[in-house]
Fold this protein.
Amino acid sequence: MAKKIMIVEDSPANMKLMIAALRSLGHEILQATDGEEAARDLPDLIIMDMRLPKMSGWETTRKLRGMPRFGKTPVIAVTAYAMKGDEEKTLEAGCNAYLSKPINIRELRRVITELLEEQPNPGNQ
């Protein structure tokens, strides 16, 4: 069954790559270019860039986690930040998974599938 996946990404090239990868799986794609746009829809899963204009991905994830409707929506952090401690910081912000850029499409697909299977009613909590 097709799911709604929101990509929160300010890089047009990265957005295009992820859209192509996810559409091949049959998912509906929602797009946001900053953290403020991320709360406008209710997706089944969110792919969150951590370096965004206006509000970082960490701040955005914390904000979303504070909203009941996003409390259980899986969030995958994608980031070029790959320093020691960054994965822990990302998970502490409320993300369910962490992938470093450049994105490995096979790994992204695997994590998406795994997280969606774990959610009994993703996006509807």
